[in-house]
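To assess whether the prediction recovers the assembly geometry, we first specified each molecular entity separately, as shown.
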Amino acid sequence: MPILSFFKRSRSKDSRKVESKDRGILVFENTSEVIRAEKVLKVEGWKIRVMGPPPEIRTGCDLVIEFPLIEELNILRTLEAVGVEPLQVVPVNSPLLHPVDIFQVRDYGRYLMIRAANMKLTVDKDTLTIVNVSGGGCPDVPYLAQEMVGMPLAEVPAPEEIGHTLCGYALQLAYEEMRRRC
Amino acid sequence: MLAVVGTVPEQNFPLVIGRVVLEGNVICIEGSRAPVNRGTPALLAAAIKVGEALGQPPPVGYLAGDIGLGEGSRLLYARLSETAVNDDISAIAFHYLQPDVDWHNRVLFTVEEMKKRPVLIADAGFMYAAKMSGQAPNYDLFTPDAGELAFLADEEAPHPFYTRGFILHEEIKVPTLIERAYQYENAATCLLVKGQPDYVADQKGIYASVDTPAEAAMEAIGGTGDTITGIVAALICAGLEVKEAAVLAARVNRMAGHLAAATPATQVMDIVEQIPRALVQVSKEHNVMGGIHYG
Amino acid sequence: MGTIVDARGLSCPQPVLMTMDEIKKVSQGEIEILVDTDTSKENVSRAALSKGWEVKDVRQEGEGYRVTIVGS
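The predicted structure of the complete assembly is given in tokenized form:
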């Protein structure tokens, strides 16, 4: 079977499901929040749309905003700045999924490494300085590493302040866990 | 010849296409420069070192600046969906790009229309997009780490951030995750799973595992996952079959870490410098199959 | 007379590494490399060219090939 026709066939078979796999939805308390959020996000240039919620969503009002999931961190920060925060943020295709809450911890003696999903943060236990940021796949990861490596854990900017993507968000979770432990 | 597609963590870095060379600890491409700290520059540095040792021409980089806002990535996606890479490109390594299903599909479509289809390697953000698009089996090689493998194994997760707890659980072993990834058709033809040990697998199961030199510190060092991908990409271009290239790359990466006496605070360039020595050493041993377990 | 590099029975990338090594050692003259696969034959030839050497001759020998390269 030629590759192209397989590709075309699988595209049409579940194209709607596949195409929305990288989209998420923001659930708000009421419609006026949805309208405010939509305005702000459109002004910032995001490709979003307002739609009815999937059946699995039981909270919030009758309208949700669909957005590019990968940019969740950046979008939440934008909404927070204007005082509009969603009740829930979930992937469109799998609204029952939630952010990882399991961490892998590795103690190297002098160094402590914490992994959240695909992101790893390593700290020197003696100096409480960040010695490494690794993992990830989104372009803000090398950028975050640049900003964070070498800085004291207590002073370093939190990933949620300067990151943009879900990888940045995962690093934020690792960072919070690290602060809890150190 | 090898093509590498990825981003540089600098917003003003332009969209550049050209041969990439290494000058000290900086990669240079058409007058633009980027330090080798981690990410796509680290992959390129490693590929260049292997290529030099094997008499291969420098890789061609398709690079753009992107700090996570996605603009640079979209420039790259657009460029690659308009015009395919040259016919003399025998392998493409897709790396740090903002995951985007629609753009990914357009690029894959263009690549598949090439007369001579290059070997397709995906890692990082582009691998996430490939999985999200349901097109993983169209790739020859994925190089996930343990966390990313769990994401591949979770057929519901759109990104590693949303991997379900029961799949992330410590008890679940890598071979089980590999099986699940293949079961749901979310794995490339070959998988090189970076970890302790490194695993090379395909649809039939684990082909080989590589556990020496055992350099535990490598996992914490930013860029060592990228260097192994650069090494395997260059070896594939040098004529090795994908699975064999993966096994050798795992050994060479570890050996380079060992020769650099790596600690969690080591920087990736120190490891890159040891790649040529590591390649010579491992190639000699490889014929005696040290440190590799098959099956 | 040149030197002979016997890379038969060795898997990629050993034949190329041995060739590069020999090129570095002698820096000029003639080298004959014995390989047993098409891939190694091509890789060795390409590697020689990358170092500015010429591929003087490639002939089948038994199950494999004898690649003769010349450098100056």
